[in-house]
Amino acid sequence: MRKRIKKYLLLVSGLLFLALGIIGAVLPLLPTTPFLILALACFANSSPRFHQMLRNNRWFGAALQQWEESRSISRGSKIKAMLMITLTFSVSIGVLHGKLALQLLLLTLASVLLIFMWRLKEAGALPLRIRDK
């Protein structure tokens, strides 16, 4: 009974994280990759079908496979993510002109995110795989 409850909780959590990741692809302040990585982990323990669907997705499947296999991201992805963090937080801080406490909070959050991204292990280009037919 506990295994079944755990499986359903992980499945629901995976679907929630997947939805947040998809929303994050559209909204610049919501991160995409961490939510997709969490969804991948939830599906790995609850739904092999959803896990494979996420790994084989044409937009972000390769990056998720790389993360799952080597716990690393490509240098290009890392640079793009850091640029987006810098750009979106700069705009947000500028919009909050005159609200020093909120600006400092955003600056602190951006700094934490940038440090986290900086520390992630980098991988070279994604390896090519030869598939048997």
Features:
single chain, mainly alpha, two-stranded parallel ribbon, 72% helix
SSE inventory with pairings:
Elements: H1 2-26, H2 33-44, H3 48-55, H4 61-70, E1 73-74, H5 75-95, H6 100-119, E2 122-123
Parallel strand pairs: 1-2
Helix pairs in contact: 1-2, 2-3, 5-6
Structure description:
With 133 residues, the protein is mainly α. The protein has two domains: 1-71; 73-125. It is built from six helices and two strands. The protein has a two-stranded parallel ribbon. Helix 1 (2-26) runs antiparallel to helix 2 and helix 2 (33-44) runs antiparallel to helix 3 (48-55). It starts with a helix and ends in a 10-residue tail after the last strand. The model has no long low-confidence stretch (mean pLDDT 86).
